Structures are given as structure tokens and as C-alpha cells.
Amino acid sequence: MNSRPRSLWIRSLATRVLLSVGLGGSIATATAQDQSADVRIVGDQVRSQGFPCDNPSSAERIEAESAPNHTVYLLKCEGVTYRVVLIPDQAAQVTEAK
Fold first, then answer.
1. DSSP secondary structure letters along 61-85
2. C-alpha angle 43/44/48, rounded to 5°?
3. Which interval of the chain is the signal sequence (predicted)?
4. Helices (H), 1-98
């Protein structure tokens, strides 16, 4: 039995594991930065349309309701939560979430 293919497979697996562990911090940081950008962008859009949104704390993308060019967020602001639908080149559809 030739151990060379198995050795290459083990080395490849080990490399992928090490890369995923090593990049874990970078991915977590990128995700936190993306979340912060989402909160800022969605919060700014809601405020620009006249809705009060003091101290936005999170903008959670609702994948099940989103589609290409139709992104749905749950935006949490101080004292109010909005369901926000972002569609390119249109005003956002903003409704107060219950």
C-alpha cells in the first residue's frame, strides 16, 4: 500500500485546519466591522427618512426575507425596533416592528 496519497491528504487537512484557526480572529473582526457598518448605514437611512433612531445598537439581516436587491434588516434603536427593507435606488420601506 502506498502511503504517499494518504500523507498528502493528511498534510492538506492539517493545513486547512491551521489556516481556519489562524484566520478565525480576522474573520471575527471582519464580521464585527461589517455589523458596525450595517448599523451605521441602516440607521442613517432610517433617520434620513424622518424616523427617530437614537443610539442604534444592532442591524440584524433577516436572511429568510431577503432576496437579491431586496435586503431586510431588523434595526434596534433606543426605545424602538424597525423592520427595514433596502431596495437599490428607492427609499427604504420602514415599519415599526412589534
1. E-TTT-BTTBEEEEEEETTEEEEEE
2. 120
3. 1-32
4. 4-48
The rounded mean pLDDT for the chain is 80
Q: How many residues does the chain have?
A: 98
Question: b/e for 3-37, b at 16 or more Cβ within 10 A?
Answer: eeeeeeeeeeeeeeeeeeeeeeeeeeeeeeeeeee
The torsion region of residue 89 among left (phi > 0), alpha (psi -120 to 50) and beta comes to left
Place of cell 440607521: 43
Give yes or no for residue 17 having a pLDDT over 90: no
Q: Structure pTM?
A: 0.67
Of 61, 95, 92, nearest to 81 by C-alpha is: 95
